[in-house]
Design goal:
The protein is an alpha/beta fold and 300 residues long. It is built from 11 helices and 10 strands.
Length: 300
């Protein structure tokens, strides 16, 4: 496995980004070792809040949420998925599979021995993060999902189909521009540049290219059986489980219904629809921070 690593210089002077990187090694196929980068802010004895990003963003997506949670005394962790942010980037698209990502993040999660975790996950952060919940339910105190799902081959919608087609055909993938397209507010040029920072050229974007094609929207996709098994665990998960989707996301619109109907912990929760686009962390960070703080305090 050939692995690329974005030079540290690419991350210097990013707008509103002052968090020191932490690193952990995980095992890849054929004896490969990969480095995962993550933010780890706040007191080590604080309640752990895990923030999982999706495609094609990185933990920069949570830059306005992290300080609000730290100020309330919580420990906040925000990893960069392999292929994104400061984490290592396998050079071949075939190196990226759904199950490898679950394994890599499981290694990282268990390596930190996290317990009593409250999770917020969006986009692929949910496809992977909810698999962590299913694998280690005893380690999670609560979950908030926004603009995500756990698909099992049941099809897609026009919003996702358009994104899938674009991601596979556009010759140059404008990462920052894609994030900007998925918000209701206009990102500044400096913010767009920060989303572009992990990808000095197109060779660094193989994970970003491959992720949309990995979403198990048909029975022929990989990970359908694994996600079905994960749903069985979620259907017994009785800890607080809150949906906080946005009102302007054509990709995930209506996706909260399955969680509300199938997860016991979702019963009685004050589910909400937040104002924002697909990347709702950019549009309503204060509201997300408040929801997380409330869940932490209810589950301590």
């Amino acid at each position: 496995m050939d692995v690329l690593r974005t030079p540290d210089a690419c991350f210097e002077g990013l707008a509103d980004w002052s968090f020191a990187p932490h690193y952990a090694q995980v095992d890849g196929p054929d004896g490969a070792s990969l480095r995962i980068a993550y933010v780890d802010e706040g007191p080590r004895d604080g309640a752990p809040v895990l923030l999982m990003h999706g495609e094609p963003s990185w933990s920069y997506l949570y830059r306005h949420i992290i300080p609000q949670l730290v100020a309330k005394g919580h420990r906040v962790l925000a990893p960069d998925l392999i292929g994104f942010g400061r984490s290592d980037k396998p050079a071949a698209r075939t190196d990226y599979t759904y199950e490898r990502h679950v394994d890599w993040m499981s290694q990282w999660f268990m390596g930190l021995d996290l317990k009593g975790v409250v999770l917020f996950c969006q986009d692929w952060g949910g496809l992977i993060g909810l698999r962590l919940v299913a694998a280690f339910p005893e380690r999670f105190a609560g979950v908030i999902v926004g603009n995500t799902g756990l698909p099992v081959g049941g099809g897609s919608n026009p919003g996702f189909d358009a994104w899938l087609n674009m991601s596979q055909t556009i010759p140059v993938m404008p990462i920052g521009g894609i994030v900007n397209m998925g918000t209701t507010r206009e990102l500044s040029p400096a913010e767009v540049a920060a989303y572009d920072a992990p990808f000095p050229d197109e060779t660094f974007k193989e994970g970003a290219r491959q992720f949309p094609a990995l979403v198990p929207i048909t029975a022929a996709h990989g990970s359908v059986a694994e996600n079905q098994a994960a749903w069985k665990v979620l259907e017994a998960f009785d800890k607080p489980f809150l949906t906080a989707f946005s009102d302007n996301d054509p990709v995930s619109k209506g996706g909260e219904a399955a969680f509300k109907a199938r997860v016991p912990g979702a019963q009685g929760e004050a589910h909400t629809i937040l104002p924002g686009g697909h990347f709702l962390q950019e549009d309503c960070p204060a509201a997300i921070a408040d929801l997380l703080d409330d869940m932490v305090r209810r589950t301590r």
